[in-house]
C-alpha cells in the first residue's frame, strides 16, 4: 500500500495483509470481491478476500518470491478508506 516514491530504493514496503475469511469484514476490514483482485499472467485467480487494515505491516521486499497480482483502483481506494478509519485520518 505504500507509494512507490516512499519505498523506492529501499528494502521495505508497507503492506496490508489479506485473508479469505470473509466473515471478518467490517468497517475497517474491507471486503474485496474477486473482480477487484487482478491476478498476474500465469498466476492462480484470487478468492474473495478481506483487507485487514488494522494489521498494517512493514515487509522486507527480498522475502517476496514473485509478484502474483494487484488490486483494482476501486479496491485501492476502499483499502485507503479502511486505513483512514483505523488511523483516524480525516
Q: If you had to describe this structure to a student in words, what would you say it looks like?
A:
The chain is of the alpha+beta class and 90 residues long. The chain has one domain (4-86): SH3 type barrels (Roll), CATH 2.30.30. Helices cover 20% and strands 27% of the residues. The chain has helices at 4-7, 73-86, and strands at 12-15, 18-19, 29-32, 37-39, 49-52, 57-60, 69-71. The chain starts with a helix and ends with a helix. The model has no long low-confidence stretch (mean pLDDT 92).
SSE class: alpha+beta
Rg of Cα set: 13 Å
Structural domains: how many = 1
Gap from first CA to last CA: 18 Å
Strand order of the largest sheet: 2-5-3
CATH class value: Mainly Beta
With helices defined by DSSP (H or I, 4 residues minimum), what is the helix count?
2
Which topology does CATH recognise? SH3 type barrels
Low-confidence stretches: none
Total strands: the figure is: 7
What is the approximate shape?
Answer: globular
- Biggest β-sheet description: 3 strands, antiparallel
Descriptors:
single chain, 90 residues, alpha+beta, SH3 type barrels, two-stranded antiparallel ribbon, 20% helix
Layout of helices and strands:
Elements: H1 4-7, E1 12-15, E2 18-19, E3 29-32, E4 37-39, E5 49-52, E6 57-60, E7 69-71, H2 73-86
Antiparallel strand pairs: 1-6, 2-5, 3-5, 4-7
